[in-house]
C-alpha cells in the first residue's frame, strides 16, 4: 500500500532529507490496522467532512462549545500529555474535533527525523474522512518551535502562499540547543524579535527556530518528552519512515 501524504514540514538546514516531502513509501499492515475498519468511534458516530468554504465557521462554533485544552497521545512507547493554546482557537478546535471523533485513533507517527521532529496524524488504513480543507495560519510570536512544541504541517509554498495548515497532519519538535548568533540570524530572516525567555529556551533545551512564522504552533508537550525521544530512535528507511509503524490513539482529558 502506498502513502499519499502531501503536508510536510521542512527546514532550510535539512533540504537533503526526504522528511515531510510527500514521498510515497510502503508500510506493513499490522493486525491492529487491519481491523481499523471494524473499530467504532467513542464520542461522535460520524465526522462531517469540512470544506474550504465552511472550515472557519464550523471551527469557530465548535471552539465555543468545546473548551478542551489537554490532550493525551498513547503509543506503544508510552503516553504523551499536551496542552493546546487558546490563542490559536481554530487549530485547537480542529485538533479537539478530530480527536473526539476518533479520527486520530486511526493514525500513526509515520515520519521521524532524530533531532528534528516526529510527524503524525495520517495512515493508509484510515476509513474516516475529514474533508479537503486547510486551516488559516495562526502565527503567534509568543509560541515558538522550542523542543516539545506541537504544530501543524502544511502544503508547499507554491500552492499555499498564505501558509495555511494541513487539516490533520501534526508534528512535535525536537531540535538541539542554538547559539545566540544563530537566533539573531533567524530573527533577521523571519523579521521577528525573540524575548529573553525565548532565547533562554532555545539556548538551553533547544528547538527548531527555522520553522518559526512558517508553521502554526498551537500547543506543547507537558509530560512525556521521553516518549517522543523513544519514537525518534525508531529505525527508519531512506525516506525517514519507521520500519515498524508507531500507531497512536489520542483523547482529550479533564483539566
Question: Which descriptors apply to this entry?
Answer:
single chain; 255 residues; alpha+beta; Cyclophilin; eight-stranded antiparallel barrel; 6 helices; disordered N terminus
Question: What does this protein look like?
Answer:
The protein is α+β, with helices and mostly antiparallel strands and about 260 residues long. It has one domain: Cyclophilin-like (Cyclophilin), CATH 2.40.100.10. Helices cover about 20% and strands about 20% of the residues. It is built from 6 helices and 8 strands; from the N terminus they run H-H-E-E-H-E-E-E-E-H-H-E-H-E. The protein has an 8-stranded antiparallel beta barrel with strand order 1-2-7-5-6-4-3-8. The longest helix has 12 residues, at about 90-100.
How is this structure best summarized?
With 255 residues, the chain is an alpha+beta fold.
For the record, what is the CATH homologous superfamily label? Cyclophilin-like
Supply the helix-strand structural class.
alpha+beta
Radius of gyration over all CA atoms, rounded = 17 Å
Give the DSSP E fraction (strand runs of 2 or more residues). 15-25%
Please provide the count of β strands: 8
Number of helices: 6
Largest sheet: 8 strands, antiparallel, barrel
